[in-house]
């Protein structure tokens, strides 16, 4: 059995945003993993390019090895470093829909395919200051996956999260605000036109309307 962590830090983002950000940054680059609030539900995070962090998160969630994570980024320009966009329209479309609780599956470029051993990944620019600040200072995508075991409902109560996961992660960042209860809407853009994979906080009809708009 994997050794459990008995020194998990519990840090309030509202009381000390800077401390939370600095500690998350340190954990991100040391291969640590942590739980944090997003613009939707609480997520488990870490550096997707760190094998140890990725493996730990998959073990905690009992996640299938081949299943990919949603990745958070600070800007469309940052996402562009890792993906292959077919045309300028897609780039402009992404700039119009973000930041928002919308996750978009995109084709990865050759370098990222080799590093992540996957042809696609879902990206989101969250409507959440803490998440965007962290992505900005790391300049790398942040894993965002729901706080739960496979086949269980996502956990969104900070008290229940601490009770269940404090022994398995290095830190838990929280705020006292009522968290969103809906997951992000997930769409596939690998073929150009948006395809709905999962409807969440944002209606797919609204997303289609933005894509079909001539306001580029």
Explain what the structure shows.
The mean pLDDT is 92. A ten-stranded mixed sheet has the order 1-8-2-3-7-4-6-5-9-10. It is globular and about 50 Å long. By secondary structure, the protein is an alpha/beta fold. 34% of the residues lie in helices and 19% in strands. The chain has a single domain, classed as DHBP synthase. A hairpin with a 6-residue loop joins strand 2 (34-36) and strand 3 (43-45).
Strand arrangement within the widest β-sheet reads: 1-8-2-3-7-4-6-5-9-10
How large, in whole angstroms, is the Cα Rg?
Answer: 17 Å
CATH class membership: Alpha Beta
Termini gap: 54 Å
Summarize the main sheet.
10 strands, mixed
* Structural classification: alpha/beta
Classify the fold: give the CATH topology: DHBP synthase
Counted by DSSP, the helix tally is 8
Assigned CATH architecture: Alpha-Beta Complex
Strand segment count: 10
Would you list the SSEs in sequence order as H and E?
EHEEHEHHEHEHEHEEEH
Helix content: 25-40%
Q: What general outline do the C-alpha atoms trace?
A: globular
Quote the beta fraction. 15-25%
**What's the mean pLDDT score?**
92
| Total domains | 1
Low-confidence residue ranges: none
CATH homology superfamily: DHBP synthase
């Amino acid at each position: 059995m994997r050794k459990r962590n008995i020194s998990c830090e519990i840090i309030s983002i509202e009381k000390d945003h800077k401390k939370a950000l600095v500690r998350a940054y340190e954990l991100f680059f040391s291969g640590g993993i942590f739980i944090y609030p997003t613009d939707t539900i609480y997520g488990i995070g870490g550096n997707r390019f760190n094998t140890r962090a990725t493996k730990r998160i998959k073990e905690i969630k009992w996640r299938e090895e081949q299943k990919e994570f949603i990745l958070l980024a600070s800007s469309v320009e940052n996402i562009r470093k890792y993906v292959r966009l077919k045309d300028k329209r897609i780039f402009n479309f992404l700039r119009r829909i973000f930041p928002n609780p919308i996750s978009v599956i995109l084709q990865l470029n050759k370098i990222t395919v080799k590093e992540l051993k996957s042809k696609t990944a879902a990206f989101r620019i969250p409507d959440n200051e803490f998440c965007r600040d962290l992505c900005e200072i790391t300049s790398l995508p942040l894993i965002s996956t729901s706080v739960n075991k496979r086949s269980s409902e996502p956990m969104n109560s900070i008290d229940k999260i601490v009770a269940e996961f404090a022994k398995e992660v290095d830190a838990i960042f929280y705020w006292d605000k009522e968290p969103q209860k809906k997951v992000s809407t997930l769409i596939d853009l690998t073929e150009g036109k948006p395809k709905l994979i999962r409807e969440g906080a944002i209606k797919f009809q609204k997303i289609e309307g933005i894509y079909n708009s001539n306001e580029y």
